[in-house]
Design goal:
Blueprint: H1 3-11, E1 18-23, E2 37-43, H2 52-62, H3 64-69, E3 73-79, H4 81-86
Parallel strand pairs: 2-3
Antiparallel strand pairs: 1-2
């Protein structure tokens, strides 16, 4: 199973109203077809009353095995339903890669 599909399946435990997992590996200095850099936008009422760090820890806990073995970078956008509507369903772009193995 592809890492993207594993991420999507595991994050269903948060009962998301919206979930988007984008493989951004192609933007980085990795082998073609890699699945190592992901952007996740997730909207869930499970985040109500939780600070950003707590939300990210929830995701990191759910994806602990993938983070330990497969995922190099995970860019997270974690929002409540209310926050999602305030942003009109938009999330930020991922930052540019500053990869340690890139040649200058």
């Amino acid at each position: 199973m592809r890492i993207k599909n594993i991420i999507e399946a595991k994050l269903q435990s948060l009962q998301p109203q919206f979930l988007e997992v984008i493989n951004e590996s192609h933007k980085h200095n990795v082998v073609a077809g890699s699945e190592s850099h992901f952007k996740v936008t997730i909207v869930s009422d499970e985040f109500n009353g939780k600070m950003l760090l707590a939300r990210h820890r929830m995701i990191n806990s759910i994806l602990a095995d993938e983070l330990a073995h497969s995922i190099h970078a995970l860019f997270l956008h974690t929002m409540t339903t209310e926050e999602w509507f305030e942003k009109s369903g938009m999330s930020n772009n991922s930052p540019p890669c500053l990869g340690g193995s890139k040649t200058k």
